[in-house]
Amino acid sequence: MSDDAGKNNNNEYKTEDEPTRSINSPRRGLELDSPQLPLVFDAQPSGRINISNNIICGDCEEVLKIFPENCVDLIFTSPPYADQRNTTYGGINPDKYVEWFLPRADEFFRVLKPTGSFVLNIKERVVDGERHTYVLELILEMRKRGWLWTEEYMWHKKNSHPGKWPNRFRDNWERLLHFTKNRRFQMFQDAVMAPVGDWAQERLKNLSEADKRRDNSRVGSGFGKNVSNWVGREKVYPSNVLHMATECYNRQHSAVFPVALPEWFIKLFTKPGDLILDPFNGSGTTCVAAKRLGRNYLGIDISQEYCQLAVERLSKDNENGSVNGRKKKNTNESFVCPNH
Q1: pLDDT tens digits, residue range 281-327?
Q2: Higher confidence at residue 340 or residue 104?
Q3: Across the chain, what does the average pLDDT equal?
Q4: Which residues pair with 174 in a beta bridge?
Q5: So what's the pLDDT on residue 97?
Q6: Three-state DSSP state, 26
Q7: Where are the alpha helices (DSSP H) in the chain?
Q8: In whole angstroms, what is the distance from residue 109 CA to residue 142 CA?
């Protein structure tokens, strides 16, 4: 699909070289204001909202209604888990979680391009001694609404502390559910190739005759391998298990994943200039990752405090950050939403 997807007579694109800008939105309309203030969403804006390279404070279900269809290339987010983050997002009862999430998922579906991807970082919580099924229920309901559950990735938290409960051990991984609207979608697998690893030095030094031809599985699965194909390779394709340490940018926010996590998926599913959306933006980790990789970003969060934190973080990253070892000049296009 062309980069003009979602663009029509009512929508505009323009180029800006400015750092993160913000809008304070009183009822009289939307006006450019101090860059220290995040966008405050007005359900009936009388002006235009720049939804590219910006932070908007509001409920994503309502904010996204001003978006045109098919304008986002990747949605990467970690929503509040059931009955967690009570002090920041109020908490959602596990039995009500699917009902709460689906209207938002409908808006995600509408704004996502046909070639786009939606990556959902989520994990079931334990209720009365067993895992609740709200994540599984959510997957099934989203499929009924047109989503394809294309893949599931696992984030292994390699620096997680040990621990246990009477009937289980500490969680050391989280789901990353990959949804798409179509079976053919934008994907750049070469962008996430990884070093082949030290194992190759010894394993490939002395190859047997079996290593030099396709050796089929002994269990009759139809799979096989030719070990000699790895000789001379410096990089290989990764698996769907990502080994990354947790990190906490600011202890003011209760759940922060590492910048490397959204970076990996942004590389895999987008190209420079694409628009990345995080509808539960928190402290802005997804936006930071998108900005560093030369993508456009938009973060939405219901907390004014976290929106402020995200704006400050992006501003600081703009001062100190670089892309591929060089200072990055922001020349990305900005998408302007029409009046409603």
Answers
A1: 999 999 999 999 999 999 999 999 999 999 999 999 877 764 443 34
A2: 104
A3: 77
A4: 155
A5: 95
A6: coil
A7: 60-63, 86-89, 97-111, 134-144, 199-203, 260-269, 285-292, 304-320
A8: 10
- What does each C-alpha distance from 316 to 307, 319, 328 come to in angstroms? 14, 5, 13
Which CATH architecture is the domain 13-193+237-337 placed in? 3-Layer(aba) Sandwich (3.40)
Per DSSP, the three-state class of 31 is: strand
Residue with tokens 């391998």, as numbered in its chain = 225
pLDDT in tens, 188-244: 999 999 887 666 666 676 777 766 666 665 666 556 566 666 676 778 899 999 999
Q: Report the distance separating Cα 49 and Cα 71, nearest Å.
A: 14
Specify the DSSP class assigned to residue 92: B
In which order are the strands placed within the sheet that holds 112-122?
Answer: 39-40, 54-57, 296-301, 275-278, 72-77, 112-122, 173-180, 148-157, 241-244
The span from the CA of 242 to the CA of 196, in Å, is 15
Please give the full DSSP string across 155-192, using - where no structure is assigned.
EEETTPPP-EETTEE---EEEEEEEESSSS----GGGG
DSSP secondary structure of 269-326: H--TT-EEEETT-TT-HHHHHHHHTT-EEEEEES-HHHHHHHHHHHHHHHHH--BTTB
Residue 258 and residue 1: Cα distance in Å, rounded?
31
| Tokens found for residue 303 | 């907390």
